[in-house]
Amino acid sequence: MKKFKTLLWAMLPLFALTFAVGCEDPGQGTDDPINVTKDSTIKLSKTTVNVGVAGGTQLIEYTIENPIQGASLTAKADAAWIAQTTVQAEKVIFQVLANEVVEAREGKITLTYGMLEPVEVIVKQDAYAAPQPIITFDPSTVEVAAEGGAQSV
Q1: Distance (Å, rounded) from C-alpha 29 to C-alpha 24?
Q2: How far is CA 104 from the centre of its chain?
Q3: Residue pair 122/105 in contact by the 8 Å Cβ criterion
Q4: Per-residue CA distances from 115 to 40, 51, 71, 77, 138 (Å)
Q5: CB neighbour burial string for 75-95, b if at least 16 within 10 angstroms, e if fewer
Q6: Which of 66, 68, 92, 131 fits 60 for a cystine, CB–CB 3.0-4.6 Å?
Q7: Strands 119-125 and 48-51, how do they pair?
Q8: Cα–Cα distance between 138 and 153 in angstroms, integer?
Q9: Residue 80: which of 116, 31, 125 has the closest Cα?
């Protein structure tokens, strides 16, 4: 029994060393490129973009608070009519194609940054409205005899 107690006392520094090394903060003292900061956030100028029927170039401004070392922002659209999505310094630029259908449409752009939760921007586009037909007559007046009869316009 005395040998057992002596063995436990002798192993105590080994256990203490194991816990000290095992409890080291991950990323501390290393060159880990993805070091997530809890306070990192993506701030957008708007979360919904309303676009007219003609479409065109659109812009969303963003800032990243407490940037993550080695991370970059990416943007991906879920609809083919939202095209050429590119990320530049503090802005996302994309093209919205003209809407040629009589229904409004909605899509989204998903922004991802490092290990943060993705952020979505909703893109809404107005419906196409077909122009109303204009009917003109030539000649604009027709003279008809008092007794009536067939005429053509």
Answers
A1: 10
A2: 19
A3: no
A4: 10, 31, 9, 19, 70
A5: bebeeebbeebebeeeebebe
A6: 92
A7: parallel
A8: 7
A9: 125
Kindly report, residue by residue over 16-60, the tens digit of the pLDDT. Answer: 555 555 555 554 544 555 555 468 999 999 999 999 999 999 999
Place of tokens 């122009």: 131
Q: What's the pLDDT tens digit per position in 91-102? A: 999 999 999 999
**Ramachandran angles phi, psi of 18, nearest 5°:** -60, -45
Beta strands in the chain (DSSP E): 41-44, 48-51, 56-65, 73-77, 82-88, 91-96, 105-113, 119-125
Is the backbone peptide bond immediately before 67 cis, with ω within 30 degrees of 0? no
* The total number of residues written for the chain in this structure: 153
